[in-house]
């Protein structure tokens, strides 16, 4: 069934470095002008979507760890991750970027955290400044959504392709904050297969480069182990044999002919059910 079992890892590792190095260099130059960094992670994968070597770039800049997609995660598990990061000194906001209130929360917290910058300016007789923010994170964590909404930009033309961050400009918001117009797209260190599969399962890797069967088998096994009632509710699956699972889903969606299962269709169905938010309430980074 799996033509190329290593495709997830290999593609991820080979696909990003050039792009990442360029973005990294640009941001390294620009970071001195930044007052606050919005580091975005996906609340379903608070560990896997975190860029590990980001501290060298951000150094001592103020930072908010924004966990997006709170509406899609398993709050019970993700809140443990929130606590974990808070205990390490992070300022964390768990948000749903589809909800207006989240933006007010981000703006309010930004002003709270940058109060000292403004006080220092006042003491020097300077007027208050607009706070310069940088949005950073791996693909698909909501960077463009956040930038577009904060700056009321209509088009979502923040692209994920190499070179796009070459011309750095800032966009105004009407909240005393200006945002770097293109986000810092960086990649986490994929040092194990689970991280790659977690990112793949939540839509962070283009499906064209994925071995979709491998991702689906991972999702089904993960659900069986961690969310069995969800598996039962969505697909009527009650046992953990992968072949059986495929067969049950294939029957449900008519992807079986002459007793032959169309594995690809089943895999796409499961993958898309997560991507299109038909299956939610899952956090892939388990808390142990
Ligand atoms: P990126 O720039 O970091 O790559 O991410 P982007 O903003 O493009 O967001 C990726 C997808 O995640 C978008 O969906 C976006 O709407 C969705 N998204 C972002 N934040 C949240 C959140 O907090 N909750 C939920 N449920 N979804 C969120 P899309 O289908 O690719 O685009 P669209 O059709 O929504 O525009």
Highlighted features:
alpha/beta; seven-stranded mixed beta sheet; two-stranded antiparallel ribbon; binds guanosine-5',3'-tetraphosphate; elongated; Rossmann fold; 2 domains; Conserved Hypothetical Protein Ylqf, Chain: A, domain 2
Short synopsis of the structure:
The protein has twelve helices and nine strands. With 288 residues, the chain is of the alpha/beta class. The protein folds into two domains: 18-181, 3-Layer(aba) Sandwich (Rossmann fold), CATH 3.40.50.300; 211-275, Conserved Hypothetical Protein Ylqf, Chain: A, domain 2 (Orthogonal Bundle), CATH 1.10.1580.10.
Small molecules in complex: guanosine-5',3'-tetraphosphate
Task: Fill in the CATH topology of the largest domain.
Answer: Rossmann fold
Write the element-wise H/E pattern from the N-terminal end onward.
HHEHEHEHHEHEEEHHHHEEH
The geometry reads as elongated
Number of domains: 2
User: What is the radius of gyration?
Assistant: 21 Å
| Helix-and-strand structural type | alpha/beta
Mean pLDDT: 88
Unreliably modeled segments: 1-8, 10-15, 156-165
- CATH superfamily caption of the largest domain: P-loop containing nucleotide triphosphate hydrolases
Number of strands: 9
The level of helicity is: 40-55%
CATH-scheme architecture of the largest domain = 3-Layer(aba) Sandwich
* End-to-end gap: 31 Å
The main β sheet shows up as:
7 strands, mixed
Per DSSP, the total helix count is 12
Estimated share of beta-strand residues: 5-15%
